[in-house]
């Protein structure tokens, strides 16, 4: 779910206010309140009695309440399912990385008797684990409607993948592979870009083509000094943990939410936005429309996550062909890659399957009619209290309706959406922790003085037990037993009795 509750987290008050649905329902609430004011004034001043029978109030209110409750519940189920899918990505990513890092040997020879050194093996396996990280990052951009591969947190992870079907000869657009062809732009043609240099230090970047040198200068500043703008609350910049790779075009930021304006925090002043329309930038991404409703990004297809899983499957086939994986481990690796693909399809289903328009339109029209006739039905009983009563009922019912509409696609930049960036960073930390494991021989750390395997019954170290067993000594509490497994089994039984007794006393 969200990384923190916007209501109780730090930050200014107006940002917390923006996390509510007040901005979404205030125009309708204001309209129905105005209707209530008109009805109350006309009726209470004896100009004309606008009261009508309230016989349908209870029946229609109950039906609308049940329908709105179902609408909100179904949207929250999608919200929870989206969170579960990201948990599946996290689990499958860990499993794939552990199988690649631990179970594929570091010193190996392929079918052609070519020996791969340990350094080459580590580079190869770490590169494939970087692809596992790239999968979650590409899914994040896919769910947010951000297509392509040229992002500061994605491009460094996959830039080494082949770009053309033919590795020799001239490079043309006809030979470009789908992963790169989908991100191609006429302004920055890939087939005219210079390849990056073999290596470079932390000095100034090498010269680029004159066609795009000026456009990429700002990108180089972000790449070498620090990508993007760090948060005000801290100086953490996750993109600094990625590689510095030269790109032939400017890279888009890893996180690019629409900017909030003054009117997003003060929705009742939005009527004056029309006067300042000519002063605003036309290419600026807006967070809300003129009535204060959130602008949802367009959902587009992306083949980047699919291409990443294809390369992972290709690596699995490569390892199987050379006999570097046992069948059971190969099956586990294949199943986890399939889990990543299944999760991608499920996330696509959640984000790309809105509630049918007929259902949304009928529900909203029914609610509008109910709220429109509500003042006429309660004015005879509430009198002037009809005005605040109608305002409260409008805000309550319309708020629940908007909440359901907002959380049914929880993958955008809203404060109530899932924190996809934090999920990707958690996967990144876990994958780096896996590759930090040195896969040591257990004999180098098991039989040491730091290990007391049979505590609490036997608090001797593993080193002492092995030494005494080799010399024919027995445990002082089990002197009648023969040294070896008989003593160990009796010690294990005593450990069980001690643990059972100690833990039940707590």
Automatic annotation (TrEMBL):
Keywords: Cell membrane, Ion transport, Membrane, Transmembrane, Transmembrane helix, Transport. It is a multi-pass membrane protein. Residues 189-215 are annotated as: Disordered. One of its GO terms (cellular component) is plasma membrane. It comes from the Eukaryota. InterPro entries: YneE/VCCN1/2-like (IPR044669). Pfam families: Bestrophin_2. GO terms for molecular function: chloride channel activity. It is found in: Cell membrane. The chain crosses the membrane at residues 25-43, 49-70, 367-385. Its main location: membrane. This is Uncharacterized protein. It comes from Mycena indigotica.
């Amino acid at each position: 779910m969200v990384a923190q509750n916007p209501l109780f987290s730090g930050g200014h008050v107006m940002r917390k206010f923006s996390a509510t649905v007040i901005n979404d329902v205030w125009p309708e609430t204001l309209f129905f309140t105005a209707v209530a004011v008109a009805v109350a004034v006309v009726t209470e001043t004896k100009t004309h009695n606008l009261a009508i029978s309230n016989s349908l109030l209870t029946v229609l209110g109950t039906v609308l309440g049940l329908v709105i409750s179902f609408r909100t519940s179904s949207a929250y189920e999608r919200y929870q399912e989206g969170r579960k899918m990201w948990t599946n990505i996290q689990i499958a990513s860990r499993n794939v990385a552990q199988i690649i890092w631990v179970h594929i040997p570091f010193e190996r020879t392929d079918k052609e008797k070519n020996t791969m050194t340990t350094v080459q093996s580590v580079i190869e396996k770490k590169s494939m684990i970087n692809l596992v990280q790239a999968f979650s990052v590409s899914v994040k951009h896919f769910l947010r409607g951000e297509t392509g591969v040229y992002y500061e947190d994605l491009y460094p992870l996959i830039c080494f993948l082949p770009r053309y079907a033919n590795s020799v000869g001239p490079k043309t657009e006809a030979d470009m592979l789908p992963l790169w062809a989908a991100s191609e732009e006429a302004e920055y043609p890939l087939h005219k870009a210079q390849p990056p240099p073999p290596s470079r230090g932390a000095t100034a970047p090498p010269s680029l083509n004159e066609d795009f040198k000026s456009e990429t200068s700002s990108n180089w500043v972000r790449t070498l000094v620090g990508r993007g703008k760090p948060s005000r609350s801290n100086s953490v910049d996750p993109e600094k943990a990625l590689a510095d790779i030269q790109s032939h075009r400017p890279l888009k930021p890893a996180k690019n939410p629409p900017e909030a304006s003054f009117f997003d925090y003060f929705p009742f002043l939005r009527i004056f936005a029309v006067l300042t329309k000519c002063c605003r930038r036309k290419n600026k991404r807006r967070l809300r429309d003129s009535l204060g409703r959130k602008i949802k990004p367009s959902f587009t297809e992306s083949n980047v996550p699919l291409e990443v899983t294809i390369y992972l499957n290709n690596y699995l086939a490569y390892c199987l062909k050379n006999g570097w994986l046992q069948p059971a481990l190969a099956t586990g690796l294949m199943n986890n890659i399939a889990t990543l693909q299944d999760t991608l399809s499920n996330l696509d289903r959640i984000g790309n399957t809105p509630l049918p328009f007929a259902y949304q339109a009928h529900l909203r029209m029914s609610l509008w009619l109910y709220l429109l006739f509500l003042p006429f039905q309660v004015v005879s009983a509430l009198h002037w209290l009809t005005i605040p009563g109608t305002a409260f009922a409008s805000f309550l019912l319309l708020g629940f309706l908007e909440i359901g509409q907002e959380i049914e696609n929880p993958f955008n930049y809203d404060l109530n959406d899932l924190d996809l960036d934090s999920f990707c960073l958690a996967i990144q930390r876990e994958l780096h922790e896996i590759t930090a494991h040195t896969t040591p021989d257990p004999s180098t750390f098991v039989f040491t003085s730091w290990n007391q395997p049979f505590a609490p019954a036997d608090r001797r170290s593993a080193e002492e037990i092995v030494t005494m067993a080799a010399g024919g000594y027995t445990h002082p509490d089990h002197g009648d037993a023969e040294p070896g497994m008989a003593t160990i089994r009796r010690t294990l039984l005593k450990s069980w009795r001690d643990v059972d007794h100690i833990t039940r006393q707590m």
